[in-house]
Amino acid sequence: RIVAMVGDGPKRVICMTCNSEHNFRSPKAASKTTKATKKKAAAKTRTGAAPKRGMAAAAAKEATRLAEWESRTTGLSASEFTKYSINVKLAEGELINHVRFGPGYVAAVVDEKKVQVMFRDGPRTLAHGLNPG
User: Fold this and answer.
1) Rg (Cα) of the chain, in Å, rounded?
2) What are 29-53's pLDDT values in tens digits?
3) Cβ neighbours of residue 37 under 8 Å, at least 6 residues apart?
4) Are 82 and 95 a contacting pair, CB within 8 Å?
5) How far is CA 16 from CA 5, 19, 63, 86, in A?
6) Using one digit for the tens of pLDDT, what is the confidence trace for 63-99?
7) 122: alpha, beta or left? (left if phi > 0; alpha if psi -120 to 50)
8) How far apart are CA 11 and CA 3, in angstroms?
9) 118 burial class (0-12, 13-18, 19+ CB within 10 angstroms)?
10) Please, are residues 90 and 108 in contact by the beta-carbon 8 Å criterion?
């Protein structure tokens, strides 16, 4: 409940939960929006060349990643892919077929229970070798 206003905004309020009176604090969601809005405004005031170059470099990097994924996974028979299971122990470079993400290859073994797999939509960290049997 608003007790005092300054301009168009509340200054003092009474909390409806605990009935205490205190200075108005804006909700956290609103403050995050304000920070995001400030960042967007700052980006617009900069010269347009630097952000465009960064975006072009990111697009080129993504195109290179996608081309590598295609060269490693397309045109191969289904028998060359291991069906992914959390129980299967995987090695770097191994081809897998995930029921949700589709074909991919093991880009890196993170540790004995995690691997990074490159799929068409990007890298994913998956568990492996949890219950080999």
Assistant:
1) 26
2) 555 556 666 666 666 655 555 566 7
3) none
4) yes
5) 17, 5, 54, 49
6) 999 999 999 988 888 899 999 999 999 999 999 999 9
7) left
8) 8
9) buried
10) no
Residue type for position 25: R
Q: Summarize the chain as % helix, strand, coil (round to 5).
A: 35, 30, 35
41, two tokens: 């405004």
- Residue pair 97/88 in contact (Cβ under 8 Å)? The answer is no
Tokens standing for 131?
A: 């219950």
Tokens of 77: 């028979």
Joined together, the tokens standing for residue 64 give 């290179």
In this structure, are residues 97 and 80 in contact, taking their beta carbons and an 8 Å threshold? Answer: no
Closest CA relative to residue 118, chosen from 85, 100, 96: 96
96-103: list long-range contacts, CB under 8 Å, 24+ apart: 98/126, 103/73
Question: From CA 97, how far away is CA 113, in angstroms rounded?
Answer: 18
Question: At 116, which amino acid appears?
Answer: Q
